[in-house]
Amino acid sequence: MAENTLSVPATAAPARRGAGPHAFLRNAGGRLLPWLLPLALLALWQLGASRGWISPQVLPSPHFVWLTLQDLYTSGDLWLNVHASLQRVLVGYAVGSALGLALGAAMGLWRPLEAYLLPTFNALVQIPVLAWLPFVLLLVGIGEPLKYILIAKAALVPVTLNTLQGFRQTPVALLEVARVYGYTRRQQVLEVVLPHALPTLFTGLRLGFTKAWLSLVVVELVASSEGLGYLIVYGRQLFQLDLVMAAVIVVGAIGYAIDKLLDLAETRVSGSQAATRLGVAGAGARV
Amino acid sequence: MTTTPIDRPPAPRRPAAWRAWLGARWRGLVLPAAAILAWWALARLGWVSTPLLVSPGTVLDTAASQIVSGQLWRALSASLARELTGFAIGTVLGLALGALLGLLPLFNRIVGPSFNTFKQISLFAWIPLISVWFGLGDVAKVTFLSLAALVPVVVNTCDGIRNTPATLLEVARVFGYTRWQTLLHVVLPSAAPSIFTGVYLALIYSWLATIGAEYLLVAGHGIGNTLIEGSEHFRMDLVIFGMFVIGLVGWSMNALARALERRLARHRLGAA
Amino acid sequence: MTTILGKELSIRGVGKRYARPGDGDGAQALQVLQDIDLDVPAGRFVSIVGASGCGKSTLLRLILGLDDDYSGQILLDGEPVRGAGLDRGIVFQDHRLFPWLNVERNIAAGLRNAPLSKAEKQELVAEHVALVGLQGFEKSFPHQISGGMAQRVAIARGLVNRPRVLLLDEPLGALDALTRSRLQNELQRIWEKERITMILVTHDVEEAVFLGDRVVVMQPRPGRIRRIVDIDLPHPRNRSDPRFIRLRDDVLGDFLDPDGRIADEERLPPPGALPATVGALPALDRLRMAW
């Protein structure tokens, strides 16, 4: 949606424009603004640590954290733990989303099935992943299966719900066109329902990954012996906050990177459909 | 004098309301009913023998004892008290921050990107740091819960404010509304549904965060602690009971928020 | 004898340019309005008609005071127009009612800054609800009423401040033909009653001639006045009156080819070049709109 400010947006540039250097400075300034706050905080942090205002037990200096990061990298510890985490999240996500797609599609295409399954599904959804942990822990112990199962559950929910919605949302108008041209049920599903549902499906897959990654961190915090979450806990227990912060930064970076990737892919998938989708509201005011 | 025609059958009596409800939803109950039955049978028949397989009866007994002894109430009220405190603090701060981000473009440019990055990082990753700064008790938990509630409120408030239709802002201008009047009488009502969504999400998120906080900041009392206790002592009945309670609370919050939303949205059904 | 409550509007030599970004010094500037000279006597109804892109909506915004970046002068009763004011009202094409307020509150929203007591405001609102014929619907919300009714609420809101000039920016464009006809009659009735200065922008030639005492025909690129036609017919107007039909066709002629087809804008015939009746007229239902 277009950005709104409290003043009515001008519909075009004013007749007078700024001369060359002014415009350049304004643009450069504009691009730097987002960095203002983080850089200021970073500077403050470094200052506080080096001046001894804050004890390194409470907050190590950025420089120290950076050194620790480098250490982790060169010693291979970073890769070890990142690898463990990534593996868990990918396996759990793959299982969870595959199940989710199947379940959502099944419920979406056969209403009776939805009537039988959805209420139970909704009830189980009310219980968050963390609340499942002790239960699954008692059943399968503290090893890898625990993580896979919990992450799969985390991914399953949004994928199922979005898939279901995607299959349900086909506009009756389009289905009627298909019927008029004598499409069989199978053709209807493959050539109308499915293509129309793809963007919503993708949203679900993307959401599923976000949830999976989040759950991974939590599960590793509570019950694991390697992985990024484990690093955080380990560092905390030894009061090595530099380790903790380094691990948090890596977690954030990976999550961000994968989210951006999925974002790009999603735009690719839904971009072609966005313009002609039925029911997409036209933007705001008529000029 | 009118006579009732004999060939018309008597009007059917209206079925009891609950029967109508059941008639519509019986299919949803089939699966759970079958599952519980299978579970009970397994426990009874002793085909699988492990101390982990507790019968539904045992769970019910545990439930009863927890309720009667007041343990459930103590644990639940502790959790809820923390959650609502964190929710309240986070919501208030979130409304303020979200309003600032929505109304001041400069502030948005400076703080916005940092906030967006911050909200991407799993909130739970901050717990160890929080535990160093605030300990393992209630203060740490409430801090964490406030953060969990803050995020959706900020996002939805900011979005709601920024999505005020320019057409309506122009109407305010035409009628000579001052900035304050525009804010109060146009921006706020227009953003209200979005803000409400944010608050609703804050309630849910802070509940989810409550459980996690109790796992990781173990000092204290709460329903999450009950679950941990159960798993440490291999008491599956306690675990199942705890899960059920948590699910119930989550469900009722959802239902409450949805009912409120329907109430407030009555005015705006179908509005652009 | 109705007292004329409107103000007189003088537009002198008004021009407006949009610079296109990224080009040299205005070489590619878009001239939206050029040399607009128009006098609107107090209490008159003036219609401005023209195809898309002729700047008619822009002109309204300038009169309203929403934009003060233009050359030339706009005077209201001799005073230059500065910024938005309650003496000028507007009805937009999309009704722009606040969805969270009911009908009477929406009308009252226009009175927020009026220096009146609460009782006076309530009376004004009730009066205007009656004026547009929506008694009984005061408590309804915008999503509960039809498009035509919503537009009537917008008209009531535009009038509630008793503005001296009411601007109407294609107010009936979003409505179906039947509702449009009905509302045109309503507008005529309201104008006869209130006698304020009204300026209507439309692309419907028949609507322009039906409602206006004066029809200003504009043409685009750059937006300028092609000609002004005075409509000397008594109110209320009759659509079947031959004089009305002749005047309508005259104005419509500005938008047609010599063969009677809708003209390509580049090849518009010079003003008044066509006689009032052009040989065999095409079917009447084809000649409603100027495109």
Task: Please describe what this structure looks like.
The complex is a heterotrimer of chains A (287), B (272) and C (291). Chain A contains 10 helices and no strands. Chain A has 287 residues and is mostly helical. Chain A has a single domain (62-270), classed as Orthogonal Bundle (MetI-like fold), CATH 1.10.3720.10. Chain B has a single domain (62-267), classed as MetI-like (MetI-like fold, Orthogonal Bundle), CATH 1.10.3720. In chain B, helix 3 (71-103) packs parallel to helix 6, helix 3 runs antiparallel to helix 8 (179-216) and helix 6 (138-162) runs antiparallel to helix 8. Chain C contains 7 helices and 10 strands. In chain C, strands 6-7-8-3-9-10 form a 6-stranded mixed beta sheet, with helices on both faces. The longest helix of chain C is centred in the middle third of the chain and has 18 residues, at 177-194. Chains A and B meet through helix 1, helix 4, helix 5, helix 8 and helix 9 of A and helix 1, helix 4, helix 5, helix 7 and helix 8 of B.
Give the tags.
heterotrimer, B: 272 residues, mainly alpha, MetI-like fold, flat, C: 291 residues, alpha/beta, Rossmann fold, six-stranded mixed sheet, four-stranded antiparallel sheet, 27% helix, globular
The structure class of chain B reads mainly alpha
Cα-to-Cα separation, first versus last residue of chain C: 39 Å
Order of helices and strands of chain B: HHHHHHHHHH
Name of the CATH first level of one domain in chain C? Alpha Beta
What overall geometry of chain B do the principal axes of the alpha carbons give? flat
Beta strand count of chain B: 0
> Tally of extended strands of chain C?
10
Assign the CATH topology of chain B. Answer: MetI-like fold
Mean pLDDT over the full residue set of chain B: 84
